[in-house]
Design brief:
Helix content is 43%, strand content 20%. By secondary structure, the protein is of the alpha/beta class. The protein is globular and about 50 Å long.
Length: 232
């Protein structure tokens, strides 16, 4: 079965061009030119990745992202004509996985889509036999083979990036992981201005999901000026 990608942008030329590049890579692509059409598709069909323009004339990309995250963990890439840090933080806060500023090169967008899909495919795989080597820390359990997370035996629904952050910190439990190292390991990109905010937003989301109190965390602790740690 082909990987299914939803592309949403009211600029038809951009949407169609992105669709052509993705189809040339072998993906099954569904195009939407309005927020309303996209919302109907999100509610009625299954996708493996969504590319959403933020500035749509009816339902904006942030609202579509909320709709996706209500029921799905597949990766979402946001498109915007504004290189505003506030927009990026809002998108990440709502559960976006990546953020591309217009104008962009279609090949760069395709590369980012492939990177997100590789992470999602790895995270979503359930083919392996669950390993007996489960990482367990203070009631937090991560099964690296089955890609599952539980807290006090209750399942935690993570996005692929959230899972990657949690697993990396758990695998390095007992030591402080610098923010730069965490970013490079999870995003596989060089650390740049704004990368720290990206990490912070995802850590905040992750803490909410595992029931961590930022002031008195049970799992993910922030060592100011250095990075994060899960104590062994």
């Amino acid at each position: 079965m082909k990987t299914r990608i939803l592309v949403v942008d009211d600029e038809k030329t951009i949407t169609d061009l992105v669709g052509i590049y993705l189809k040339n890579e072998g993906f099954e692509v569904t195009l939407a030119y309005s927020g309303a059409d996209a919302a109907n598709l999100i509610m009625s069909q299954e996708f493996d990745l969504a590319i959403l323009d933020i500035m749509l004339p009816d339902i904006d990309g942030f609202e579509l992202l909320r709709t996706i995250r209500a029921d799905h963990t597949y990766p979402v890439i946001m498109l915007t004509a504004r290189d505003a840090q506030a927009d990026k933080i809002e998108g990440l806060s709502l559960g976006a996985d990546d953020y591309v500023v217009k104008p962009f090169r279609p090949l760069e967008l395709v590369a980012r889509a492939k990177a997100q899909l590789r992470r999602y495919t790895s995270y979503g795989s359930r083919d392996e036999v669950p390993s007996s080597h489960i990482i367990s820390v203070h009631g937090l359990e991560i099964n690296p083979e089955a890609h599952t997370v539980t807290v006090d035996d209750k399942p935690v629904r993570c996005t692929p990036i959230e899972y990657s952050i949690l697993l990396y910190l758990a695998e390095n439990r007992g030591r402080v992981v610098p923010v730069e190292d965490l970013f490079r390991a999870v995003w596989n990109e060089e650390f740049m201005q704004g990368s720290n905010n990206t990490v912070m937003v995802h850590i905040r989301h992750l803490r909410e999901k595992v029931g961590d109190d930022a002031q008195n965390p049970r799992f993910i602790k922030n060592i100011w000026g250095v990075g994060y740690t899960i104590e062994g």
